[in-house]
Amino acid sequence: MYLHLGAEVMAKNRQIIGVFDLDTSTVTQPTKDFLSLAENKGQVINISENLPKSFVLCEENGRFSVYISPLASSTLRRRARNTRTFE
User: pTM for the complete prediction?
Assistant: First the structure.
C-alpha cells in the first residue's frame, strides 16, 4: 500500500522508516545534524509549499530520502494505520 505524504507524493508503506514532527524532533542536535547531512547529500525533498509540519524518512534499495511534508505527523501516522488495515 501507499501513503500520501502531501502535494501528490506517495510512498510505499514498506519504504517508510519513520514519521517525525518537525517542531519536536528538530530541537535536538542529532536530528539537526541528520537533516543537514541529508540536505548536503541531496536526499531532502521538500514537498511543502507552506509551513512544513513533518518529515518522513524513507529507504529503497539502500538509498535514503527525507520528505519534508505539509501534513502533521499525527495525520500521516493515522493514514498509515488505516492503509495497513487494508493490506
Answer: 0.90
Banded model confidence at residue 85, pLDDT cuts 50, 70, 90: low
Q: SS3 letters for 8-47?
A: CEEEEHHHEEEEEEHHHHCCCHHHHHHHHHHHHCCCEEEC
Q: In the structure grid, which three cell numbers stand for residue 77, read together?
A: 501516522
Strand partners, 16: 58
pLDDT digits (tens, 9 = 90+) for 45-65: 999 999 999 999 999 999 999
Distance CA 75, CA 3 (A): 11
| Domain extent listing, the chain | 2-84
